[in-house]
Design goal:
single chain, 2 helices
Length: about 90
Amino acid sequence: MSRLLVCTTLSVLAISAHAETLAMDCVTPLQPELSASPALLKEYGDDIRAEFNAYFVEAQTYLNCLASASASAQAEVRLVLDAYREMFQ
């Protein structure tokens, strides 16, 4: 088997193993309603606060997911770059 074929095959396998999180895996949280009348705040204030708190938790999870997807993408690019360098040495 040629060295190029071996390097290419190993690179594809390594990329598949490292592509753990993709941006499409990250679920964008639904933004809560940003305006409420004083009457609604008075009657449903606890529910509105809970909705905002849930949003902030989901937003943090989303941002962490995007960071993980970015790290996975960077690792993939490094692997491809290393394989490219190896092929053309």
